[in-house]
Amino acid sequence: MESYDVVIVGAGPTGCSAASELDEGRRILLIDSGPLPQSKHCGGLLNEDSIKIVEGWGDIQKALISPIHLRLGYIDFDNDLIYETKRVFWNINRRRLSEIQLVKLPPHIDVKNHTRLIGYDENQNLVTLMERNGLKRKVEACYVLGADGVDSETRRTVKGRDLKKHLLIQMRVRGLDPNEETAWFIYDRETTCKYAWIIPKGDHVIVGTIQDDPDLSVTERLLTKISEFFGAELEVLTREGSYAHCITDMDDVMLGKGSVLLAGEAAGFISPSSFEGISYALQSGAAAAHAFNDGNPLNMYREACVPILERLETQLRKARRLFDEDLRRRYLESGMH
């Protein structure tokens, strides 16, 4: 039977960040339930916290797409307000980011795609995996890191609290200016339960929204409003859907239990105000790796996550302002954004 020091479940930004930071002498298995490199339905924006981490990567330029720098703007249909901020994001291709992280992995790490966790016996240090061919196999592992995202099987194995689920719909659209250097966040109680977004991506624009209602007519009303606002005729090239989970209070966050740590979205690390997760993925993945390296992982990880938790709590307070129509108007008019 194969034996590992750490089995990392999920080879996205969280899992790759952790794998890259683990001590070279450790035996590491990195698995992912899907194909690699990953392609994920997300806005593909790097905020200030992410930029601080990746700007030192010599090959990060390969992940950037035009327009590279995007200002953040708000369109509030409920309050009939428009605001552009001074915040600037980096615009990336999500698949290329995955490629860069996989290439950066040290050669001693065993990477297996189309492989998922289906069980963990902590008493015997046994991890049960399901491979692409449907065969089950067991490996020994001292520790497990759950970096498997919003629908985390690892979180379920340690009986973590279920997170609130939302439907995320993202479309590739033509008709808007793909060279526009602004990423727009849209608030509209008629068409989104949280917010929608418009992000230029090279030769097209992505329009995304978060809904509780799967009725596509709601999405069509959003597209109509955007079309009328910009005076443009929109053509939807592709439409994809997935689920997004988000915390409603800090009790939703779970860092782990026993010899299992949770990082990234599996832990609940995703911004409740913007659903941004890459910065939390990179930070918490590295924090988990350092905790494994230093011994006594769970206690070390809890200590390392204090600044991440503080930032998340700040975002939770911000979300409560942004998703309330009157509080949002006052927040945007105050210039605090």
How are the SSEs placed, and which strands pair?
Layout: E1 3-9, H1 13-21, E2 28-31, E3 45-46, H2 48-54, E4 64-76, E5 81-92, H3 94-104, E6 110-112, E7 116-121, E8 126-130, E9 136-146, H4 153-157, E10 164-174, E11 182-187, E12 196-201, E13 204-211, H5 216-230, E14 235-246, E15 256-257, E16 260-262, H6 278-294, H7 297-304, H8 306-322, H9 325-334
Parallel strand pairs: 1-2, 1-9, 2-6, 4-11, 9-16
Antiparallel strand pairs: 3-5, 4-5, 7-8, 8-9, 10-13, 10-14, 11-12, 12-13, 15-16
Helix pairs in contact: 1-3, 1-6, 2-6, 6-7
Write out key terms for the chains shown.
9 helices, 337 residues, 16 strands, FAD/NAD(P)-binding domain, 29% helix, eight-stranded mixed sheet, alpha/beta, single chain
